[in-house]
Specification:
heterodimer; A: alpha+beta; two-stranded antiparallel ribbon; 2 helices; B: alpha/beta; six-stranded mixed beta sheet; five-stranded parallel beta sheet; 27 strands; binds flavin-adenine dinucleotide; binds iron/sulfur cluster
Chain lengths: 65, 391
Amino acid sequence: MKITVDEDKCCGAGSCVLAAPDVFDQRDEDGVVMLLEAEPAEHLRTAVREAADVCPAAAISLSEA
Amino acid sequence: MSTPAGVLVAGASAAGLATAEALRRKGYTGELTLLGDEPHVPYDRPPLSKQVLAGAWQPERAHLRTREVLDALDAELLLGDAAASLDVENRTVHTESGRALAADTIVLATGVRPRTLPGQDGLRGVHVLRSLDDALALRAELLSTRRLLIVGDGVLGAEIAATARGLGVEVVLAGPQAAPLAAQLGPLASDLLAELHNENGVKLRLGAGVDGLTADGDRVTGARLSTGEVLEADLVVVALGAVPCTDWLEDSGLVLGNGVVCDSRCRAADGIYAAGDVARWHHEHLGSLLRLENRTNATEQALAVAANILGADQPYTPIPYFWTDQFDAKLQIHGVLAADAEVTVVEGDPAARRFVARYERHGKAVGVLGWNMPKQARLHRQQHLTTGGSR
Ligand SMILES: Cc1cc2nc3c(=O)[nH]c(=O)nc-3n(C[C@H](O)[C@H](O)[C@H](O)COP(=O)(O)OP(=O)(O)OC[C@H]3O[C@@H](n4cnc5c(N)ncnc54)[C@H](O)[C@@H]3O)c2cc1C
Ligand code: SF4
């Protein structure tokens, strides 16, 4: 699984961080999402899928690679 | 896991799509239908008053998912047809075009529609902003407008004011509060917002409600305040809040009252659930019925509904959250900020317009507001707001 984020769309909600704190963080200065793991390990996948789905800005896309 | 034979979702926007996605993610493989009255594929509303209205985004950028992702969902997407009535006993939705859609489980996600002023319908030059088509129509007229009057001093009115100023339009914002969003945010943050709007040239005509519109023939000319004063304008946006889209459920026998009334599982009747702006459910931690109109609730409630459909039997007890962007200010609001709460700045500095404030009532933290400090606000939420929490 590969994650891409559209920083322009991110509204800084932090929902992704609440859902998958091992994979997402936010920049200190403007709250924009930061990817800690672009290709997360197997056991994180469900959390990452949920993070992508709850993102209120649809800023996170996933591809199966 | 109990598995329904078929799920029908009425309302194909944020909450409806999120319900469908969550069902699939949680392993539901049965039939899935998403019915929406708009002709567009599911799109996101928050950018409508911001990037789309400003012209910074083409409308397609507001689409929630690409066509590919939608196809992969393996759901039947019925667009441009409205749900017209619901037969609760037979779990069947009848649509405007004459379809009869039966399903084991039905999810109501029809959202809200804008409240209007008497006499507004049929008047040219008056807009509301809820849909993509509304946003494009308003934008088209804004580009040739000199004076815009916004009726309503809530989030939507204030955002439209900021965006329209950015387009160089003269903007007057009218409403009954002392400052924009005063009832929601309390004096500290709303006074700062008023200052921000003033600095950017928005004329605030606050402290008086708007009684009605004035017109010349079928064209709006402005609005009349409760004080008798008339504000003139070429274009008027009415942003007076919204009412749940439940007209089509009137004869269904479901309990309606400022939304579809649900139990703590977001269930309106056996096999019938509601999610998003239209749902008014029993929040167990707050001990009362609650209806939220914000973007994160649309998805979080959809997740809860999907889980309950599949047999989780869990109460939905979120910490409410919304954000708003106005000029250079990005506000994040977690929890419920009462206007009379005790407010303490816990990080940053309001004078620098970068801060986090904690709201307390009866010695208990009820909310956190971040002003240009999204990450820090989220961290304070995790530290202070323990009631609720959807996960
Ligand atoms: C301009 C604007 C800006 C916003 N900005 C923010 C923001 O910055 N932050 C934030 O947190 N929230 C914001 N919101 C609120 C957020 O967009 C909503 O909370 C969210 O869209 C709710 O999702 P929903 O799916 O419940 O309802 P909706 O998005 O309203 O979707 C309901 C769908 O159902 C359709 N429908 C209605 N009746 C029927 C019927 N009878 N049959 C079939 N379909 C029907 C509607 O046409 C619509 O497509 C904003 C809203 C607007 C309008
Ligand atoms: S949930 Fe979405 S909008 Fe929020 S911080 Fe993460 S990527 Fe950004």
